[in-house]
Amino acid sequence: MIKLRLLSKSANSLRHSATVIFLHGSGDTGPGIREWVHEILERELEFPHIKMLYPTAPLQSYTPIEGELSTVWFDRPIAIHIPENRKVMEKAYDILRKLINNEIKDGIPVNRIIVGGFSMGGALALHAGFHVNRHLAGIIAYACFINNDSVIYETLHKESGSKFPELLMFHGSDDPVIPLAWSEHCFKNLCKLGVKGQFKIIPEVEHDLEKHALEDIEQWISKKLLPLQTSDRKKLD
């Protein structure tokens, strides 16, 4: 059984009424990406009523580094045209379901949970909202892509006419790891299948987090997950 190491951050001791799950990229950890965000913003990414959750992926074999062990959500080659390994993805979905269900059991409605991530974490976030659970509040995908034959496209096609989580995507214009064109291609395909959202290109940025993008994410989260009124908060207690 996969055991996830979790790192959460709440702005205060008050009962939180919403959750953001943010997934790191390949080879990183939850504490690692939290610290990276802190270094860029020179402060925590935090909200009085929102729990920030930074899980760490399991250690497993990773093809791009010749099968060596790494903290990754799933194994894959970094190529958009290679078929998606759906058997491998099922293990990642189990992780997503556990993370989301833990928050629901803690009293957080699914429509007050946002899943986001960087690089591989961003790709898994897309799977979270458009394949695993389309009732989430929103999806943040930063510097990532999904394969051309992704199960996501099949799911969206089957659920045509349904409402999907709003999407916020970012990509550096000079990304040498994942070409900007891959991410743009994915966003356009998602929109054709009914996803609503924004795609933002970060000028002169490579495969990195960037301050203005993080500030945009902060504002977007604040608008998507407004504080609850007193009567609504009591329902969560």
From TrEMBL:
<feature type="domain" description="Phospholipase/carboxylesterase/thioesterase">
    <location>
        <begin position="13"/>
        <end position="223"/>
    </location>
</feature>
<dbReference type="InterPro" id="IPR029058">
    <property type="entry name" value="AB_hydrolase_fold"/>
</dbReference>
<keyword id="KW-0378">Hydrolase</keyword>
<protein>
    <recommendedName>
        <fullName>palmitoyl-protein hydrolase</fullName>
        <ecNumber>3.1.2.22</ecNumber>
    </recommendedName>
</protein>
<comment type="similarity">
    <text>Belongs to the AB hydrolase superfamily. AB hydrolase 2 family.</text>
</comment>
<dbReference type="GO" id="GO:0005737">
    <property type="term" value="C:cytoplasm"/>
</dbReference>
<dbReference type="GO" id="GO:0008474">
    <property type="term" value="F:palmitoyl-(protein) hydrolase activity"/>
</dbReference>
<dbReference type="GO" id="GO:0052689">
    <property type="term" value="F:carboxylic ester hydrolase activity"/>
</dbReference>
<dbReference type="Pfam" id="PF02230">
    <property type="entry name" value="Abhydrolase_2"/>
</dbReference>
<dbReference type="InterPro" id="IPR003140">
    <property type="entry name" value="PLipase/COase/thioEstase"/>
</dbReference>
<dbReference type="InterPro" id="IPR050565">
    <property type="entry name" value="LYPA1-2/EST-like"/>
</dbReference>
